UniProtKB/TrEMBL annotation:
General function of this protein: Catalyzes the reversible epimerization of D-ribulose 5-phosphate to D-xylulose 5-phosphate.
Main enzyme class: isomerase
EC id: 5.1.3.1
Binding site for substrate: S7, H65, G141, F142, G143, G144, D174, G175, G176, G196, S197
CDD domains: RPE
Catalytic residues (UniProt): D34, D174
Name of the molecule in the record: Ribulose-phosphate 3-epimerase
Required cofactor names: Zn(2+); a divalent metal cation; Fe(2+); Mn(2+)
The gene coding this protein: rpe
Length: 214
């Protein structure tokens, strides 16, 4: 079954505890946490202490998406804060093989992220190392953008390579996911759907998550 990870970027920050509870009660499998540095992406968001406070209380695991230059500097801190999955962008990591190994050494699952313009082939040497591959289906930096369907070509290739070579990575998509785009992404082979605005603005997230998982 497909897993769903609501992105806290779209939550009501004045009621974060209640927002986390609401998504967990609605059947979310992970909480997706967007960390932005105003440098790798043109926006700023949350940091380590916020992850730590939420991880201490959250009934579901934290999926931490690092949109940072030099993300390797922060791996240990986010792992100590309680991140279950830590994902870094291939475009920000000249030593991606070593970085994925460094993530796994902390006990967290190691994810690698592809921007819409980055070919799936850029990961061929690390497919064995990755626990998760996150395909951006919008340009990273902001919530509420429109899904870019061409990005699913990467997902299809990665799903095919996983079948052919028995790799173990999970496939995740992030950006512009709603019930319709979730359906197309699932057909392409996705295991985890990240959705921000769609779920947090939805009147009935329980129903929306159940539909996305079908
Ligand atoms: C964008 C973030 C996403 C964002 C998705 O850079 O990585 O996780 O929250 O938001 P929606 O679902 O609104 O496109
Ligand atoms: Zn994200």
């Amino acid at each position: 079954m497909t897993a769903v990870a609501p992105s806290l970027l779209a939550a009501d920050y004045l009621n974060l505890g209640a927002e986390v509870e609401k998504m967990a009660a609605a059947g979310a499998d992970y909480l997706h946490f967007d960390v932005m540095d105003g440098h790798f992406v043109p926006n700023l968001t949350f940091g380590i202490d916020m992850v730590a406070q939420i991880a201490a209380k959250s009934p579901i695991p934290l999926d931490v998406h690092l949109m940072l230059a030099n993300p390797e500097k922060y791996i240990e801190a986010f792992a100590k804060a309680g991140a279950a999955i830590i994902s870094v962008h291939i475009e920000a990591c000249p030593h991606i093989h070593a970085t994925l190994q460094a993530i796994k050494k902390t006990g967290a699952k190691a994810g690698v992220v592809l921007n819409p313009g980055t070919p799936a082939e850029s990961l061929t040497a690390v497919l064995q190392e990755a626990d998760l591959i996150l395909q951006m289906t919008v340009n990273p930096g902001f919530g509420g953008q429109s899904f870019i369907p061409e990005t699913l070509e990467n997902i299809k290739k990665l799903a095919k390579w996983r079948d052919q070579h028995s790799y173990n990575y999970l496939l995740e998509v992030d950006g512009g996911i709603n019930e319709q785009t979730a359906e197309i992404a699932k057909q392409a082979g996705v295991d985890i759907l990240v959705a921000g605005s769609y779920l947090f603005k939805h009147a009935n997230p329980l129903k929306a998550i159940a539909n996305m998982k079908k």
